[in-house]
Design brief:
One of its GO terms (biological process) is amino acid transport. The protein is α/β, with parallel strands linked by helices and 359 residues long. The chain is built from twelve helices and 15 strands. The chain folds into two domains: 2-242, P-loop containing nucleotide triphosphate hydrolases (Rossmann fold); 251-358, Alpha-Beta Plaits. The strands form three sheets. It has a six-stranded mixed sheet with strand order 6-7-8-3-9-10, with helices on both faces. The longest helix has 18 residues, at 173-190. The protein is elongated, with a radius of gyration of 25 Å. The protein binds adenosine-5'-triphosphate.
Length: 359
């Protein structure tokens, strides 16, 4: 649906070259809600704006439905652009015009007949829940309402793609949630592919199925949201994931390890999906001669799949503890032992155990 092929963009200003995009290769499939995350200056906006040619790549190309839009004539491009809606962080609405006039603007510019415009605009306003504010001026609306108008204006031409430039960065958490829910609804009900840029991992968690992490104009990591959250590889990705799933070891646990019995054994378990449902803790306590205490837990939902971590203490003789650990691992749950300095974790792998569990 959208494909970036070796896409690069170099800006030249004051005799200097800035590589905003450096050989981007990404594929966004129909129906995706694809999130691009990165810090300020990573190149996200530039990437998004190459899709509707608000920016033209310096080299490489961007295909929309298999076509490089730079090859289109002006007329063809105007038509194609109706299929690509866009919403902005600061809404980009005309303050001197009403809600109705703002939403009608793309249709007016396309010279759609007046009665059709009225019908379509009211239909879209009904959909986004602002039918009764059609005559209000933009300055009379809240931030969330303004973004709804932005979404209505983007939807009015029946686009196939919606580009979202930090759509919730100017909104409070509650309003953010309602706007993200609306975008999800648009994606599902109209089958609109969404490409969204953000610097908030919470936004990615909330609605995206795929994510790409950008740094210095490059995509440093990309994949399914579940994959990236559960196994981030790059440092920047790990930092973003940690902003949502706090998986550092809490101070009180480190203190416990340092102050109490030095033989205390504390483990971090990482759960994905159905494993959370398994009451692994009580299962282990029943199967082996060990006591298990839950010390800390942090579980979130990712695309309706539970995901998170649990910090537990396992008490018992060494061999029983090792058998319990292997049992947990064989349940496809990542388990790591927390060292007394709290930063080092011993990662258990098959090799560490041999056949202890059956021994
Ligand atoms: N028109 C321009 N002229 C010169 N340099 C530009 C221009 N637009 C962007 N840049 C530079 O390109 C790089 C990428 O900018 P871009 O806005 O794409 O990043 P971003 O990840 O969207 O950042 P932010 O979240 O702050 O908007 C930055 O170094 C920026 O200063």
């Amino acid at each position: 649906m959208i494909e970036f092929i070796d896409t690069s963009k170099v800006y030249r200003s004051d005799g200097k070259e800035i590589k905003a995009l450096d050989q981007i290769n990404l594929k966004i499939n129909k129906g995706d809600i694809f999130g691009v995350i990165g810090f300020s200056g990573a190149g996200k906006s530039t990437l998004l704006r190459t899709v509707n040619l608000l920016e033209t790549p310096t080299s490489g190309k961007v295909l929309v439905d298999g076509v490089d839009l730079t090859t289109y004539s002006a007329q063809e491009l105007r038509e194609k652009k109706k299929e690509i809606g866009m919403i902005f962080q600061h809404f980009n609405l005309l303050n001197s015009k009403t809600v109705f006039e703002n939403v009608a603007m793309p249709l007016l510019l396309s010279k759609v007949p007046k009665n059709e415009i009225r019908q379509r605009v009211m239909e879209v306003l009904r959909y986004i829940g602002l039918e009764d504010r059609s005559n209000a001026y933009i300055h009379q609306l809240s931030g969330g309402q303004k973004q709804r108008v932005g979404i209505a204006r983007a939807l009015v031409t029946n686009p196939k793609i919606l580009l979202c430039d930090e759509p919730t960065s100017a909104l409070d958490p509650q309003t953010t949630k309602s706007i993200l829910n609306l975008l999800k609804k648009v994606n599902v009900e109209y089958n609109i592919t969404i490409l969204l840029i953000t610097h908030e991992m919470e936004v990615i968690r909330e609605i995206c199925n795929k994510v790409a992490v950008m740094e210095n104009g490059r995509v440093i990591e990309t994949g399914n949201v579940l994959e990236i959250f559960s196994n981030p590889k790059e440092k920047t990705t790990k930092n973003f994931v940690q902003s949502v799933v706090r998986d550092e070891i809490p101070e009180f646990i480190i203190k416990m390890l340092q102050d109490d019995n030095p033989s205390k054994r504390i483990f971090k378990l990482k759960f994905i999906g159905e494993n959370v449902g398994q009451s692994i803790v009580s299962e282990v306590a029943k199967k082996f001669k060990v006591d298990v205490n839950v010390l800390f837990g942090n579980i979130i939902e990712l695309q309706e799949i539970p995901f998170g971590n649990l910090i537990i203490e396992i008490k018992g003789d060494h061999r029983e503890c090792e058998r319990a650990i292997q049992y947990i691992r064989l349940k496809d749950i990542q388990i790591e032992e927390v060292a007394a300095n709290g930063s080092e974790l011993r990662n258990y792998s098959q090799r560490n155990f041999g056949n202890l569990i059956y021994g």
